[in-house]
């Protein structure tokens, strides 16, 4: 009798699991990208070629193969003078970024990008 009861309980749970899976598969599929905004940092964070070289030279962990690889990437990618860096790179602290540096960088990105996206979309951030 106990075996029959256990079989019924397991069958019921299996049926409930299958029903939950069917229900869950049909949820939350309505995500559409209606617009986007690329983030462009301010011009004071633009790197020139000489400063890029200084940043690379500051890194003591790079060997000759890594230097060759970086040079190849920079020249083939067309990055040139249109490369931006975080503020901690300009301060020479790229090897030890702080939590505050990360939060500041995210806030700059979110504030700038979302503001421009909402303005372009004519949507008020206050929900008026």
From TrEMBL:
<dbReference type="GO" id="GO:0006633">
    <property type="term" value="P:fatty acid biosynthetic process"/>
</dbReference>
<protein>
    <recommendedName>
        <fullName>FAE domain-containing protein</fullName>
    </recommendedName>
</protein>
<dbReference type="InterPro" id="IPR016039">
    <property type="entry name" value="Thiolase-like"/>
</dbReference>
<dbReference type="GO" id="GO:0016020">
    <property type="term" value="C:membrane"/>
</dbReference>
<keyword id="KW-0808">Transferase</keyword>
<dbReference type="Pfam" id="PF08392">
    <property type="entry name" value="FAE1_CUT1_RppA"/>
</dbReference>
<feature type="domain" description="FAE">
    <location>
        <begin position="25"/>
        <end position="124"/>
    </location>
</feature>
<dbReference type="InterPro" id="IPR013601">
    <property type="entry name" value="FAE1_typ3_polyketide_synth"/>
</dbReference>
<keyword id="KW-0012">Acyltransferase</keyword>
<dbReference type="InterPro" id="IPR012392">
    <property type="entry name" value="3-ktacl-CoA_syn"/>
</dbReference>
<dbReference type="GO" id="GO:0009922">
    <property type="term" value="F:fatty acid elongase activity"/>
</dbReference>
């Amino acid at each position: 009798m106990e075996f029959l009861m256990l079989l019924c309980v397991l069958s019921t749970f299996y049926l409930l699991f299958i029903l939950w899976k069917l229900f869950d598969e049909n949820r939350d599929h309505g995500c559409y990208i209606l617009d986007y905004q690329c983030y462009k940092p301010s011009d004071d964070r633009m790197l020139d070629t000489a400063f890029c070289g200084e940043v690379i030279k500051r890194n003591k962990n790079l060997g000759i193969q890594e230097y060759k690889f970086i040079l190849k990437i920079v020249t083939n990618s067309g990055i040139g003078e249109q490369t931006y860096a975080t503020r901690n790179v300009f301060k020479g602290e790229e090897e030890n970024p702080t939590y505050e540096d990360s939060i500041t960088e995210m806030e700059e990105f979110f504030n700038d990008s979302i503001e421009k996206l909402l303005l372009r979309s004519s949507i008020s951030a206050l929900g008026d």
